[in-house]
Design a protein that fits this description.
Chain lengths: 282, 435, 170
């Protein structure tokens, strides 16, 4: 009995560690998109820079940063995989040990049983000579022991199932994360492909009011359907000039539908877009 | 135990969801197109006998397009033709990407009395931006149309329109016998409804509007040499303002209308003078043996810009009205002349020549940046619309002088085709009084 | 000056002055009056008159002095014309002189009006240098308003950058 709890305890700890790891990763992931923002921002800034040296430097910095992020992610994934593998290994070992122990126990029991049988035969022979009540009592005791053994086996099996289930769940969570990461990677690729398409389309429809270069800037939050239809446009940051604000709102509304990836899972990454209209940078 | 696991798993899920929604894509837009705002102007409904005297929608559309700030959507593209709010389906207009929609109707309400109603809508917001009603006579129809253009322009650009204004110019007519006649004319800003205010066998030059738009100063050679006159438009009465020995030329009103700057060579060579007509007081402003001419007042009335060739070639100089040393303000181009201020005082328009090509340019004073707006070779006499968004000038086409308007950004140019004869020397009036 | 030319001078003047006289009648022109552009055309015919002169021509038959673009300097050839007119006028005190400056169409109208005056004054100054009294000379300018040649090329422009020498009876 104590043996069973002990295992459960180990599994529990394992799962916690896993969960924490997963949580940790998910936090990391939260950072990934924000990293992407930075990269995007830099991209835009670069486009406006005239100094090629600076641009190159900036590019190198971003590349380095990107490489560091990638290698960290890779390391983290390897660590996770290793952990899962080790957990599986530990479980296998424990299982082996448990089986060996059980085998030994069975052997021991067999031996004991044999001894007992011998003794019993001796005793029987003796009790046959002596009397019968003691024999009955002994029978009862054996039966009880057997029942207990069955129960123990059942419990061990149940624990094993639970552990397996937990492991499967953890693996599933990991799988989900991996899938998500894959999507994100794909989305990043799609982002690089679609961001200029979206920008160009909005730019084509933006009739910039003359004189808008004098420091006017507005930010719109735009919600899109997976097919790129503009659902809502909200002025997150007004330029303070009604004509300018109207021009940028109309630009986005007229640009509908915006070009999005055809894969709806990827299009989801584009469901909300913040458009920053800043003619001074142009 | 299981509960704990499920909740943590749930937490992870939540975390993932949150992190996904937080990944808002940010796109920076720094460039737009330099184009007109697409506007749909539905032909106004007519409720009366016969046909309306004027196509208001067309007048309005032409006005707005000429400004360079609008594109009038072809009415063949319209999916519906409402004439009031009840008939407007915004979806119809969003589909053809109209940002604004103007509808209206004209109703006869009495003998030679018409009610004109018009409404302007923001198509994507689906709301009315303006609604007006006028009761006018038939001959005021064009004026109403120009006033509607002004309202639309102001609502959609945030700046006042200048369509309900006039232009003065000189037309030269050649009779069959080879006689030339010089006509000083005034027309609507779109060139329609011209009226001759002076008819002479001798040249007329340099018409200049008084700030109240009621009088014109000009140079006439009717006495066989240049003299400056001031004529009241309402009754045609006029007065000879300057007939000194030598040149009398280039009149320019001060913003308060109380003084005129002009050019006289009575002291030997052309110099800028300031004349107060009421007191007949004359003050000489420039002192240089070079040519000093073409004075124009700054909107605040404190400075005068003028053309001088004191550096060898004509360039623009600025001098305080109180006097002092003139400062040269143009350095780009071999020949800069005939400067005049925009109403905001931030820029001047002028004729700028390079390699023998005379073109209309705008000089932004603070930035000291010159933008050449036209491409012909003999463009001249530029003057700003009172809102500073367009410039009227004279150019050559098919061997005759024509008037043209260019948007202050140089993007849209249009010849005023309604004017006949050899046309020159345009001057844009100040704002008109409304009804 | 030989005799032949001296005989020719009055003949030229008759042709030339017929144009001036024509113009003179219009001097008190009212607003609605017909223009004097025909007068300019007659002056043009006066120039044509030099053709039958043959031999060395009296330069007073030439009634126009021409200029470079945006310039008011009188070159040697034109100087001779001016000097001939000055000499004649000194000999004929009854005739007054009007010098009418013109410019080609390039440049702004007001500047060209001033440029025309500068040209007229340049000629007037030269006349005085040749002995003509200042009070007999009137200068005026039409700027680019009265071209003699239409067209937008140098061949037209060079004819329009001019000072017209006009004699008027006093």
């Amino acid at each position: 009995m104590s043996e069973g709890y002990g295992r459960a305890f180990i599994y529990a700890i394992l799962v916690h560690v896993l969960v924490l790891l997963v949580l940790g990763i998910s936090f990391d992931w939260q950072l990934i998109p924000s990293n992407n923002h930075q990269i995007d921002d830099k991209k835009v800034v670069q486009a406006t820079l005239v100094d090629e040296g600076k641009v190159q430097k900036e590019l190198d910095r971003i590349k380095k940063k990107e490489a560091a992020r990638k290698s960290a992610a890779k390391k983290e994934k390897a660590r996770l995989k290793e952990l899962v593998r080790q957990a599986a290994l530990a479980e296998k070992k424990a299982e082996k040990k448990r089986k060996a122990k059980a085998r030994r126990l069975v052997e021991l029991k067999k031996k004991q049983a044999l001894d007992k049988k011998k003794k019993a035969l001796e005793k029987k022979r003796k009790t046959l000579e002596a009397r019968k009540p003691a024999e009955r009592k002994k029978k009862k005791l054996t039966k009880k022991k057997k029942r207990e053994q069955i129960e123990k086996k059942r419990k061990a099996h149940a624990n094993k199932l639970t552990a397996q289930r937990k492991r499967r769940q953890a693996e599933k969570a990991l799988q989900a994360l991996l899938r998500k990461e894959q999507l994100q990677r794909q989305a990043q690729g799609e982002l690089n492909r679609y961001e200029p398409l979206i920008r160009q389309r909005v730019e084509r429809f933006w009739i910039r009011p003359p004189g808008a270069k004098t420091g006017l800037k507005a930010v719109l939050r735009v919600r899109l359907t997976p097919s790129g239809e503009v659902l809502t446009v909200r002025v997150v940051q007004s330029s303070g000039n009604a004509i300018f604000d109207r021009s940028v709102e109309n630009a986005v509304k007229k640009a509908t539908p915006l070009p999005l990836p055809s894969n709806p899972e990827l299009a989801e990454f584009f469901s909300v877009i913040d458009f920053e209209f800043d003619p001074q940078k142009g | 135990m299981r509960k704990l696991i499920t909740t943590t798993l749930l937490g992870i899920g939540l975390q993932l969801w949150v992190c996904q929604t937080m990944a808002i894509l940010k796109i920076e837009i720094t460039k737009g197109v330099e184009a007109g705002v697409p506007i749909a102007i539905v032909p106004f409904a007519w409720q009366g006998e016969g046909k309306p005297s004027q196509d208001l929608a067309k007048i309005i559309g032409d006005d707005l397009v000429r400004s360079g700030r609008f594109e009038s959507i072809d009415k063949d593209d319209f999916l519906s033709r409402p004439h009031d709010q009840a008939g407007v389906k915004f979806k119809d207009w969003r589909l053809i990407k109209a940002e604004a929609l103007a509808v209206g109707k004209v109703q006869r309400v009495g003998s030679n009395r018409y009610q004109v109603q018009f409404q302007l809508f923001d198509v994507f917001k689906g709301k009315q931006l303006a609604g007006y009603r006028y009761v006018v006579k038939a001959k005021q129809m064009r004026k109403v149309a120009h006033q509607i253009s002004d309202i639309i322009y102001e609502k959609l650009t945030g700046e006042p329109g200048a369509f309900d204004t006039r232009i003065a110019y000189v037309t030269v007519e050649q009779s069959d016998s080879g006689q030339r006649r010089f006509l000083l004319q005034v027309a609507d800003a779109d060139g329609h409804e011209p009226v001759t205010v002076l008819d002479s066998g001798e040249p007329i030059m340099s018409p200049a509007w008084s700030p109240d738009g009621k009088r014109l100063a000009y140079v006439s050679f009717e006495k066989r040499r240049s003299m400056v006159y001031v004529q009241t438009l309402a009754d045609g009465s006029r007065e000879r303002l300057a007939d000194f020995r030598g040149l009398n030329s280039a009149p320019a009103w001060s913003p308060d209308g109380k003084r005129l700057a002009l050019v006289l060579s009575r002291d030997g060579n052309p110099e800028i003078y300031i004349l107060s007509p009421r007191s007949r007081q004359l003050r000489r402003l420039t002192h240089h043996h070079a040519i000093d001419t073409e004075p124009a007042w700054s909107p605040n009335g404190r400075h005068i810009v003028f053309t001088s060739d004191r550096s060898g070639k004509p360039q623009i100089y600025r001098i305080a009205v109180s006097g002092g040393k003139p400062q040269r303000i143009t350095f780009e181009g071999e020949y800069n002349a005939r400067a005049s201020y925009a109403a905001d005082g931030q820029s001047i328009t002028l004729v700028s020549a390079n390699k023998g090509r005379y073109r209309i340019a705008v000089l932004y004073l603070r930035q000291n940046a010159m933008h050449v707006l036209t491409e012909a070779t003999l463009d001249e006499s530029p003057s700003f619309a009172p809102n500073g968004r367009m410039i009227l000038y004279a150019t050559e086409q098919g061997g005759r002088g024509v008037l043209a308007a260019v948007s202050a950004d140089g993007r849209v140019k249009q010849i005023l085709r309604f004017l006949k004869g050899d046309v020159r020397e345009p001057a844009w009036s100040p704002y008109n009084r409304k009804f | 000056m030989n005799k032949k030319i001296l005989l020719l001078v009055p003949l030229m003047l008759v042709v030339g002055l017929s144009g001036c006289g024509n113009k003179n009648k219009k001097s008190n022109a009212s607003v609605d009056e017909r223009g004097v552009s025909t007068g300019a055309a007659v002056n043009g015919e006066g120039v044509a008159g030099e053709q039958f002169g043959g031999g060395p021509v009296d330069r007073t038959s030439q009634r126009r002095v021409y200029f470079e673009f945006d310039r008011a300097a009188v070159d040697d050839q034109n100087r001779a014309i001016v000097s001939a007119h000055a000499a004649y006028l000194v000999d004929h005190p009854g005739i007054a002189l009007t010098l009418e400056g013109h410019a080609d169409e390039r440049g702004t109208r007001e500047y060209n009006l001033a440029l025309g005056e500068r040209r007229a004054k340049a000629v007037a100054k030269l006349m005085q240098a040749y002995g003509l009294a200042a009070d007999r000379i009137t200068t005026t300018s039409y700027g680019e308003e009265r071209p003699v040649a239409l067209g937008h090329s140098e061949s037209a422009w060079q004819l329009n950058r001019r000072v017209e020498i006009l004699y008027e009876d006093q």
